[in-house]
Amino acid sequence: MGLGDSCYHRQIGYIENLHFLEDVMKRYLSLSFALLALFLAACNGPLPSTDSTPASSVASASTPSPSESTDAEEQPADAPQETLPADLDWQPYEVSTFASLSQTEGLTDVSEFSPAGEIRPLLDLATVDGYSTAQGFYRFVPREDASSNLCYIDFASGQEIYLCSQPNCAHADASCTSWYPSNLGILLPIPVGDRLVVLHGGSPSYASLIGDDALAQIEFAALDGSGRSTGIVFPSNVQITSLPRGGYAYDDENVYFVATTTMESSTLRTLCAANAVTGQVFALCDLPNEEEKIMGGVGSKLIVSYSPGAYDMSISAADLQTEIACIDLSAHTMAPLFSYPYLSVGGIQGTRYIVLTPDSKLLTYDLQTGQLVRELAVTLPEGFDPQNMHGDGLFGGKILAHSFQISSSDAPSQLFYCAVDTESGDAHLLNAVYEANGAYSPGTIAAETEDQLLFAYGQETLLVTLPDGSQISYPHYQYALTQKDDFWNNTGNYAIVAHP
């Protein structure tokens, strides 16, 4: 079967929403989930206010809160129910063993945790390096000396700045509020209300070079980058999990993430929460299923996915299913909701869960009941292969996905970037595709406002030099802002984000 064999598809399936930015064969041979791409630095422009962004205006990269969005199709007619049907198979989950097994100190007792409002998804893609409020986008930009800067793209001005208010600052050491000592591993800023939650994923393999900066940790700061404080530092055997089996979500106070503890003969994956208001960090429950990943929420309940048999290479990926389950964080119970083909792409839109399947069907599930409410056949554009597709999020009532047509020559494999309307099923190709390092990549959407989209229009490679003289290459993305209609209609009208 060549590139279409089950092993290849399995690796693609593991990272259903991960974009590989190299050639398909290179992507098959080498998966790098620890390095998230970060981008260029800038130094002039308005800093975000520490008190100008109410909690209700905070948006994820994929799903804006109702106060920000005017897209009727993304807003359910009725608010999410706080109580799912009693006939679901609710089962209690055990108290997490994470604290004792990982020897993590400083966790707050889980009895003190409670969700705060509606849980929303955060887009988890390798090509998305930050998250947004209604006013701007936060991300880390790597420096050549292996440190990094917290930067901010202001939607109004179209400029990216260092998150620093000091005049004539070099942004190169701890005297700068934007400077962080390491850019190794996951480094993500997530705005929640008037605070930032900064996830340091951890890079234990570099502990001999950078010491404690290699440890996973949770930090908090104001939206202007000031007032930084450490919530918790994890031991060296713990990492905050990214792709393929991590995922993130947030509510009015908390960021939800997955921590992985590596032991001698096994690993433990644990659902955790960091409270931006109190600075507390909680281990909520252990995740026993294969590839269990945070997908988002419905009301104050968390939605997760998992794929039984995903690590059994004797099973064809085409025969696997993705299971969706709901976690009631207040009642400490979990219930299965529904399942769909493993190679599908999609996610949460309001109170609905929508997927595009490998057999070109659009399935819509009600997250309040777990029921399939719609099945729609879709005619996909010529060249787009639903058997080998990768998800790029849901925006504007559309599922975004891309697929490759393998080239037999040295030329880059052709990429087809597709938008599928979740209501009508209409599908068309997008021309927001760019070439970098000998491969094509989709212009992934990173954030949206009422009328604009922030998307990647290009990519550069930055060589980072470690203390021992070795180098790591980082892809970092060039962003542009465009009107939504221009993006969907392929007009090519966009404004490149300015970098001083």
Describe the structure in brief.
The chain has 500 residues and is mainly beta. Helices cover 6% and strands 41% of the residues.
Description:
With 500 residues, this protein is mainly beta. It has one domain. 6% of the residues lie in helices and 41% in strands. The chain contains five helices and 35 strands. Strands 1, 4, 5, 6, 7 and 8 form a six-stranded antiparallel sheet that branches. A hairpin with a 6-residue loop joins strand 11 (217-222) and strand 12. It is globular. The termini are far apart. Residues 1-46 and 50-83 have low confidence and may be disordered.
Write a concise keyword list for the protein shown above.
500 residues; disordered N terminus; six-stranded antiparallel β-sheet; mainly beta; single chain
Terminal-residue CA separation: 50 Å
**Content of β-strand:** 35-45%
Give the uncertain stretches in residue-range form: 1-46, 50-83
Structural class by helix and strand composition: mainly beta
Cα Rg: 21 Å
Largest sheet: number of strands, sense, barrel closure: 6 strands, antiparallel
**Which of globular, elongated, flat, extended, rod-shaped describes the shape?**
globular
